[in-house]
Structure to design on (422 residues):
């Protein structure tokens, strides 16, 4: 059913209302379908090619077309119906797995097509999701929402990949993969249905195509260091989001053990996200983010003792424990910046697009560095140093964000608009 349009409501209770819970439901279905198959899709490509470069090209194309989709679809989301973009993104995600099912073992020959479809699907969904997220939350309940989303993500990460690994193990390679791809397809379709209960809020103004350039060209806006921090965040995401799962499979040769790895690390993440979402207040964001960053880097060093299932598990548990301290302040502070004043709120679509463009530039850079390095050498020491360098990028992000986090602690208003905008 279609719901009537309405303007964003203003809440100061810190609680989640029906619309935020519905958005959490759509988010949960999307990440469930993604986790069911996405955790193992990298392994699927690896098993077909035994080549990190093929996996890198898929990831690189995904991030490139994700960024392009964000920028182009921003016009439709701002001036039209953002819910159409959300449903189209979910629908393309379903189409992605339909393609994988149709192509079967020949999917590796169409890695470029799969990367493009995945990038467009992800870009459309997260653009619409993040704009709606901004509209249905405020500074009072944003940390609570992010904590709840993190808890859901951790629960999904605990249960769903383990179930996928179990299915693949008992059904056998290709049949198991086809089963989880089919289930993902069905869950994406369910997500489209739930999205019809979300309201499409009234569009405001015209889309500013050159907004990213205008922000970057002004040295005085607070967004310049924020974009640097987001780029640093994206560098780690692209490489670690792909390589860790494949490394677990390479070390164990078992999808079931990859499922067990996801179960343990997500269980830790569940507790950590719950605690951080409940107790990490805005005044503690800077210190919390600093502790999270340092700990995340520290847990990469066990790789220098040798990459094994044990060292991967130590890394996974440590990263899951401290990642919320880094991620929650990062996300909440950026969206608080968008909601600082009425002018920024009216440009919320442009700011979300800018945020995602910065993340995807970082993802592309991180993956390009990874691919270039392994093309030269795949020696264990080279790989470990590469993971340490890429994995240390959140430190750069924290340094970029410190002034903003400190100003938010003191509730100091910062300049967010590019020069010449009134």
């Amino acid at each position: 059913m279609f719901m009537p349009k309405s303007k964003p409501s203003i809440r100061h209770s810190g609680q989640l209302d029906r619309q935020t819970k519905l958005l959490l439901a759509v988010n949960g279905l999307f990440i469930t379908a993604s986790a069911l198959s996405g955790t193992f899709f990298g392994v699927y490509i690896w098993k077909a090619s035994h080549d990190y470069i093929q996996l890198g090209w898929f990831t690189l194309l995904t991030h490139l077309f994700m960024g392009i989709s964000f920028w182009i679809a921003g016009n439709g989301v701002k001036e039209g119906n953002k819910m159409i973009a959300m449903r189209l993104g979910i629908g393309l995600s379903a189409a992605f797995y339909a393609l994988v099912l149709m192509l079967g073992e020949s999917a590796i020959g169409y890695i470029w097509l799969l990367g493009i479809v995945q990038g467009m699907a992800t870009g459309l969904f997260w653009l619409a999701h993040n704009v709606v997220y901004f509209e249905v939350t405020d500074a009072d309940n944003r940390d609570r929402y992010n904590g709840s989303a993190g808890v859901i993500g951790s629960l999904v990460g605990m249960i769903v990949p383990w179930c996928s690994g179990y299915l693949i193990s008992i059904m056998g390679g290709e049949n198991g993969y086809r089963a989880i791809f089919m289930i993902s397809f069905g869950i994406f379709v369910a997500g489209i249905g739930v999205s019809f209960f979300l309201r499409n809020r009234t569009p405001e103004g015209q889309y500013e195509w050159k907004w990213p350039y205008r922000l970057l060209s002004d040295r005085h806006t607070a967004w310049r260091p924020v974009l640097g921090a987001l780029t640093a965040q994206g560098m780690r995401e692209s490489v670690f989001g792909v390589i860790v799962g494949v490394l677990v499979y390479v070390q164990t040769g078992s999808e079931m053990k990859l499922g067990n790895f996801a179960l343990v690390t997500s269980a830790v993440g569940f507790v950590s996200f719950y605690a951080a979402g409940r107790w990490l207040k805005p005044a503690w964001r800077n210190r919390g983010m600093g502790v999270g960053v340092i700990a995340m880097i520290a847990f990469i060093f066990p790789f220098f003792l040798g990459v094994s299932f044990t060292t991967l598990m130590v890394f996974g548990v440590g990263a899951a424990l401290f990642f919320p301290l880094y991620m929650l302040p990062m996300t909440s502070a950026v969206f608080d910046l968008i909601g600082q004043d009425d002018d920024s709120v009216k440009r919320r679509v442009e700011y979300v697009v800018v945020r995602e463009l910065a993340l995807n530039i970082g993802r592309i850079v991180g993956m390009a560095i990874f691919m270039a390095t392994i093309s030269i050498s795949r020696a264990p020491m080279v790989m470990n140093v590469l993971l340490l360098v890429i994995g240390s990028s959140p430190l750069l992000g924290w340094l970029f964000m410190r002034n903003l986090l400190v100003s938010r602690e003191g509730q100091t208003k910062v300049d967010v608009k590019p020069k010449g905008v009134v």
The two ends are 40 Å apart (CA to CA). Residues 19-197+207-409 form a domain with the Growth Hormone; Chain: A; fold (CATH 1.20.1250.20). Confidence is low (pLDDT under 50) at residues 1-12.
